[in-house]
Amino acid sequence: MKELSHTLKQELESMGVHLFEIDESNLSKTKQFRCNYYIYDSDKQHTNHVVYIKEIVGTLHPSYEGLSFLDIFTKLKRRERIVSNYLGNSSYYTEQLTRDISSDENDRPCFIKLNNEYYVDTGNHRITICKLKKFDYIVANVTEYFSNPDKQKLWDGYIRRGFKLDYDSTNDRLTVFFDDDYLYFDDRTVSELTEFLILYDKISIHKLGFIKNRKLRSQSMKYNYSNASFQFNRVFNKLLQFKKNSC
Questions:
Q1: pLDDT tens across 2-19, in order?
Q2: How far apart are CA 73 and CA 69, in angstroms?
Q3: Contact assessment for residue 114 and residue 71, using Cβ atoms and an 8 Å cutoff
Q4: Which of 17, 27, 41, 128 could form a disulfide linkage to 12, CB 3.0–4.6 angstroms apart?
């Protein structure tokens, strides 16, 4: 543990946090929140959800992301006032959080749950104190995200073939990058993106493959005109070169 200032030590001790009791869970760096909202495309809201402190792995707050919980405490905005408020009403910061949320309570901490891990969305001050004081659990509001296995498989398929993907959740648009070019997919359905990948896999890179490729392009436009086939034909020559370079 790095050396703490005398003031910090006093503040922690006044809250009942003894330095010799601070363990690795509060000294190691927290995880950075990364969620692929294309794959994690559904969620469920939980109220009065029991969150075990040991399963809290990070925070969404940009000022605290990636820091240990001890470091978060040292960098808390208005820390002196928080410590003072804690000493005047400690139950608000700790014991109150272990009870069900009352009807007149509107500031209970909120979490994002991803792959059975919890990230603090709101309530960093109180959660940090609960972590340092080694509470077992708190009761909170939780938004749990669920992954779509079909989208996960599709995403992995593109990556495996050398494409790079970017999902803009704000504009709900998926972009597929290859070499110095890219494709927009405003229709992001699994079937649309699967069709494009199937067409790509059928491209022949053999010397006499131009005959097969010409037939492939003709059939894709004639029998199944879609956004996938349109995009495929629009950049076909670049896709052909990309596939040659990838092999």
A1: 788 899 999 999 999 988
A2: 6
A3: no
A4: 17
